[in-house]
Write a structure and sequence with these properties.
With 677 residues, this protein is α/β, with parallel strands linked by helices. The chain has three domains: 7-245, Arp2/3 complex 21 kDa subunit ARPC3 (Orthogonal Bundle), CATH 1.10.1760.20; 255-403, Alpha-Beta Plaits (2-Layer Sandwich); 432-664, Alpha-Beta Barrel (TIM Barrel). The strands form four sheets. It has an eight-stranded mixed barrel with strand order 10-11-13-14-15-16-17-18. A five-stranded mixed beta sheet has the order 4-5-3-8-9, sandwiched between helices. A two-stranded antiparallel sheet has the order 1-2. α4 (80-90) runs antiparallel to α5 and α18 (518-529) packs parallel to α20. The chain is rod-shaped, with a radius of gyration of 37 Å.
Length: 677
C-alpha cells in the first residue's frame, strides 16, 4: 500500500480557475492513454486470462474500495501493490486497464464529480505507464515462464517503483505548487520520508503477491486478511483522532487542530518566505438567540453556518470552531488585501437568513485578521493579534479589521480589562452607589437610582460608559444586572429597618429587551430576595426601546405584569413618541439632563422640558428631571409642575450605608435646604 499525498490538500494550492484546467488536463492525458491501450490490447486477452489474473484484478478492485485514512492524507486506496503485481506479471497494458476500471467503479460508487473521477483514472494510468516503461527497459518482465522474477531484476523492479513514486509526487505536489505559485520543496520535505517508506513497502509487497499467486493462486486470497485489518485499524484510529480534533456539533476542526495547523503553516512559510492569514470570526448577538429561543436553536444555527464558512474558502484552507460562537480561519498563500476580501465575502454569506424549524434567523459577525509575516512570525502572536483585530471590529462595528500596531496598545488594554471585568462580575466586585430622587412639590425622597461603580484595584474608579458596553459584548450584562438587583434588594431591607421605605431604580441594557426570559428571571429574583416588585423601577433608555419596538414592548408588558414599574430614561434623545409610549405600561419619563441643565439659559431647552411635562401629564405619566444642579433650575421645574428631580443639587451618588447621612431629617429636602451637599 502506498500513501498518496492528499490530492485535496495539494490541489488546493491552485486557484479554482486553474484547478479545473489542471485536473482536466491530467484526466485527458491519462484517459487517452487508457483508450490507446484498450484499442491495442491483444485480441482475446481478457477472455483467455487465467484465474490468477482475475484474482489479482479482483484484489485491485477490492483495494480501491477498501480505502484507509491516514493523518494528513486523503483516503488512501490499498490497490497499488496488487496493480503493481499485475504490472510485473502481465505487463503495462493489462495493469493500466484493470486499474482504470477499478478506479472508475470505486469513484462512481462514491458519486465523485466527473472531473475528480477523470483525474484519479488519469494519474493512476500515467504513473503505471511510466513505471511499466522503466520496468521494460531494465528487466525482461513480464514473463510467463518460471521463475516469474530473477534476483538480478530486483534493482530494476525498485527503480520502476521509484519512477512511480516520483511521477505521483510530480502530479500531486510539484505541478500544482508551481501552477499555484507556491514553493514545493517544503511540501516534498514534509512527506518525503513517509512517502519513501510506503513506496518501499508497496514495491516489496508486489513481487511477494506475484510469487504467491504463481505458487498457489488460492493462497493470494489470504492477503485480503491483512488488508482488512489495516482498513479497520486505520478507520478506528481516524475515528478516535477525529473525535479528539474536531468539534462534535459542527464537524469542523477544533481549537487544538486549528492551532496545530497554524503552527505548521508558520514553520512552512518561514522556510519558503510566503504569507498566510489567520482570521478570528465572532457572531454578533449570538447570546440573544440562545437566551431568547433556547440553546437548541443556537446549536442548529451554528450547524447551518459551518458549511457557509467552508463554501467561501479554498480546500487548502482551514475553518475551525474555536468555541462558543467563535470561528477561526487559516488562509494559505494570501496577502493582507486578499485576506480582507475573503473575510468580507465570508461575512456577507453569513447575512443570509437561516431557516430553523419555521423561524427565519438573521445573524451578523465581526472578523479580525492577522497576517504572516507582516503582523507577526510567531503562532501565539498571530492568534493574539487576530483576536485583537476582531475585538476592534466589534468595537467599531466595521465588520472586518486588519490588525494595526497603532491600535494594539488600546486594544490590548481592553482585552486585559475584559478579563478583569469578567472576574469582577463573577466575584460580585461591582457595587451600587445611590442618588436620591426628590419629589419637587414636597422635597420628599421617595426613591433612589442605583448607579453601578467599578472600583478597580489598580486603575481606581472606572466609569460605567467604559465597562458597560464591554459587559454587553462579553455577554456579562445579564449576570451583572441580576447581581445588582440582588444588591439593591439587600440594601432596601437595611433602609427599611432604618425607617426609609424607598423605591430603587436601576438601568436596563438593550440586551435585556431581547430576552423573553428576563421578566421571569426578575420575578424569581425578587421572590428570593424579598423585595416587593412595586419597589423596583427599571429604567430603559429611549434609544434601547426603539432598537426593536415590538420585542421591547413584549418584554415591558411582561415586566409590568410582574409588578415592576417602568421608566423611560434619557427621554428626548431618541425617536420615540408619546403616542407610542402611551401604548406601553410605562409609569414615568426621565427628561435627559442635556435639556434640564440648560433650561434656565436656553429658551428652546425650556420649551422642550415644559412640553414634555405637559404631554406626559396628559397621558397620565410621571416626570423626573435629571441633572438638576442649581436652585434656579429646581424652582423653574416647580413652576412647570415637574413631579420629581434628581441631580448634584441634592446629592452626588453615595454608597447605600451613607445615604441616610445625606438626607435631611424626616426624609425630606425643603425649599430652604436645597443647597448643594
Amino acid at each position: 500500500m502506498i500513501a498518496i499525498p492528499s490530492t485535496r490538500l495539494r490541489l488546493g494550492l491552485l486557484p479554482r480557475d486553474r484547478l479545473g484546467a489542471y485536473m482536466g488536463l491530467v484526466g485527458l492525458a491519462g484517459g487517452s492513454l487508457v483508450l490507446f491501450f484498450a484499442l491495442h490490447l491483444e485480441k482475446g486477452f481478457f477472455s483467455g486470462a487465467s484465474d490468477e489474473f482475475w484474482i489479482l484484478a479482483g484484489l485491485v478492485l477490492f483495494g480501491e474500495l477498501m480505502t484507509v485514512k491516514v493523518r494528513g492524507y486523503d483516503e488512501v486506496p490499498s490497490s497499488t501493490p496488487f496493480a503493481y503485481a499485475l504490472l510485473l506479471g502481465y505487463g503495462t497494458v493489462p495493469a493500466v486497464l484493470i486499474q482504470a476500471a477499478a478506479s472508475l467503479i470505486a469513484e462512481a460508487k462514491d458519486r465523485k464529480p466527473i472531473l475528480q473521477l477523470g483525474f484519479r483514472i488519469g494519474q493512476q494510468a500515467l504513473c503505471l505507464a511510466i513505471a511499466g516503461g522503466v520496468l521494460a527497459a531494465l528487466t525482461d518482465l513480464p514473463r510467463s515462464g518460471s521463475p516469474p522474477l530473477h534476483p538480478y531484476e530486483v534493482p530494476g523492479l525498485f527503480t520502476a517503483g521509484g519512477a512511480y513514486f516520483v511521477a505521483y509526487n510530480l502530479l500531486t505536489d510539484v505541478f500544482p505548487a508551481a501552477l499555484g505559485r507556491a514553493s514545493f520543496p517544503g511540501l516534498l520535505r514534509r512527506d518525503l520520508g513517509f512517502q519513501a517508506l510506503t513506496a518501499a513497502v508497496f514495491i516489496s509487497l508486489a513481487p511477494i503477491i506475484l510469487l504467491t499467486a504463481r505458487f498457489d493462486v488460492t493462497m493470494t486470497l489470504l492477503l485480503v486478511l491483512p488488508v482488512i485489518a489495516i482498513y479497520k485499524g486505520g478507520r478506528d484510529a481516524m475515528a478516535s483522532e477525529r473525535q479528539a480534533l474536531h468539534d462534535p456539533l459542527t464537524g469542523l476542526p477544533n481549537r487544538t487542530l486549528f492551532r496545530d495547523r497554524v503552527d505548521q503553516a508558520t514553520a512552512r512559510y518561514r522556510r519558503e518566505a510566503g504569507s498566510f492569514a489567520v482570521l478570528f470570526v465572532d457572531l454578533d448577538h449570538f447570546k440573544e438567540i440562545n437566551d431568547t429561543l433556547g440553546h437548541h436553536y443556537g446549536d442548529e444555527l451554528l450547524r447551518a453556518l459551518a458549511p457557509r464558512f467552508q463554501e467561501n474558502v479554498r480546500e487548502s484552507d482551514t475553518v475551525a470552531r474555536l468555541g462558543g460562537d467563535e470561528f477561526g480561519v487559516l488562509l494559505l498563500d494570501l496577502r493582507p488585501a486578499e485576506a480582507q476580501m475573503v473575510a468580507s465575502k465570508l461575512l456577507d454569506s453569513l447575512k443570509r437568513p437561516v431557516q430553523i424549524e419555521g423561524l427565519s434567523l438573521h445573524v451578523a459577525a465581526s472578523a479580525g485578521i492577522a497576517c504572516f509575516p507582516s503582523n507577526g512570525q510567531d503562532p501565539d502572536l498571530l492568534l493574539q493579534r487576530a483576536d485583537v483585530a476582531m475585538f476592534e471590529a466589534k468595537e467599531q462595528r466595521s465588520g472586518v479589521e486588519l490588525y494595526s500596531q497603532s491600535r494594539d496598545d488600546s486594544s490590548a488594554e481592553r482585552l486585559i480589562l475584559a478579563g478583569e471585568l469578567r472576574e469582577a462580575v463573577e466575584q460580585n466586585k461591582l457595587s451600587l452607589w445611590y442618588q436620591p430622587i426628590v419629589k419637587v412639590s414636597t422635597g420628599e425622597v421617595s426613591a433612589v437610582e442605583g448607579l453601578v461603580r467599578w472600583q478597580h484595584p489598580g486603575k481606581g474608579t472606572i466609569r460605567p460608559d467604559l465597562f458597560i458596553p464591554l459587559a454587553e459584548q462579553l455577554g456579562l450584562i445579564g449576570p451583572l444586572t441580576l447581581s445588582l438587583i440582588g444588591q439593591a434588594a439587600h440594601q432596601w431591607r437595611l433602609w427599611k429597618r432604618e425607617g426609609m421605605d424607598l423605591s430603587v431604580a436601576l438601568n436596563v441594557s438593550v440586551r435585556h429587551l431581547m430576552s423573553r426570559d428576563f421578566s421571569s428571571d426578575i420575578a424569581a429574583l425578587l421572590d428570593e430576595a424579598g423585595l416587593p416588585a412595586n419597589r423596583l423601577k427599571l429604567e430603559i433608555t429611549e434609544s434601547a426601546l426603539m432598537a426593536d419596538p415590538g420585542h421591547a414592548a413584549e418584554v415591558i408588558r411582561a415586566l409590568s405584569a410582574v409588578g415592576v414599574r417602568i421608566a423611560i430614561d434619557d427621554f428626548g434623545t431618541g425617536y420615540s413618541s408619546l403616542a407610542y409610549l402611551n401604548r406601553l405600561p410605562v409609569h414615568q419619563l426621565k427628561i435627559d439632563k442635556t435639556f434640564v441643565g440648560s433650561m434656565t439659559t436656553s429658551a428652546s431647552a425650556e420649551i422642550i422640558v415644559r412640553s414634555t411635562v405637559e404631554l406626559a401629564h396628559n397621558l397620565g405619566l410621571e416626570v423626573v428631571a435629571e441633572g438638576v444642579e442649581s436652585e434656579a433650575t429646581l424652582e423653574r421645574l416647580a413652576e412647570l409642575q415637574c413631579d420629581y428631580a434628581q441631580g448634584y443639587h441634592f446629592s452626588r451618588p453615595v454608597l447605600g450605608g451613607r445615604l441616610s447621612g445625606r438626607i435631611p431629617a424626616g426624609n425630606e429636602f425643603s425649599p430652604a435646604t436645597t443647597a448643594r451637599h
